[in-house]
Amino acid sequence: QVQLVESGGGLVQAGGSLRLSCAVSGRTVSRYGMGWFRQAPGKERDFVAGINWNWGTNYADSVKGRFTISRDNAKNTVYLQMNSLKPDDTAVYYCASSGALYMNSSPRGIDYWGKGTLVTVSS
């Protein structure tokens, strides 16, 4: 049974930083594409960042230069470091696991989701 458990969300002022963690069980993160999506109220779930089995990464244009995705194979955990946060970054952030080696930016390519963690950025 594959489980993804997010942590690290919270309330932060604009310009601040947060680090999200995704602890994974039942699947080895180094063998799959892993990533983060987010969903703001009344909006669709959007791709944020992905990391492939070979350490390659990709980002949504809106977060490039501010967010960094990484993983710790020993801890089987994926992280999202978020800097220079903006009110538009407010959303529920979901950890995601692709069924393939590479992370797809479409939610259709995801076979496991976490339950999400709320990030609120105040102005």
Q: What secondary-structure arrangement, pairings included, does this model have?
A:
Blueprint: E1 3-7, E2 10-13, E3 18-25, E4 34-39, E5 45-51, E6 57-59, E7 67-72, E8 77-82, E9 91-98, E10 110-113, E11 117-122
Parallel strand pairs: 2-11
Antiparallel strand pairs: 1-3, 3-8, 4-5, 4-9, 5-6, 7-8, 9-10, 9-11
Please give a handful of descriptors for the protein shown.
123 residues; mainly beta; 7-stranded mixed beta sheet; 4-stranded antiparallel beta sheet; 11 strands; 0% helix
Average pLDDT reading = 97
Q: What's the alpha carbon Rg, rounded to whole Å?
A: 13 Å
Estimated share of beta-strand residues: over 45%
**Percent helix:** under 10%
What would you call the shape? globular
Structural class category: mainly beta
Total DSSP helices: 0
Describe it for me?
The protein has 123 residues and is mostly beta strands. The chain is 0% helix and 51% strand. The protein has no helices and eleven strands. Strands 2, 4, 5, 6, 9, 10 and 11 form a seven-stranded mixed sheet that branches. A four-stranded antiparallel sheet has the order 1-3-8-7, with no helix packed on it. A hairpin with a 4-residue loop joins strand 7 and strand 8. The chain starts with a strand and ends with a strand.
Question: How would you summarize what this structure contains?
Answer:
With 123 residues, the protein is mainly β. 0% of the residues lie in helices and 51% in strands.
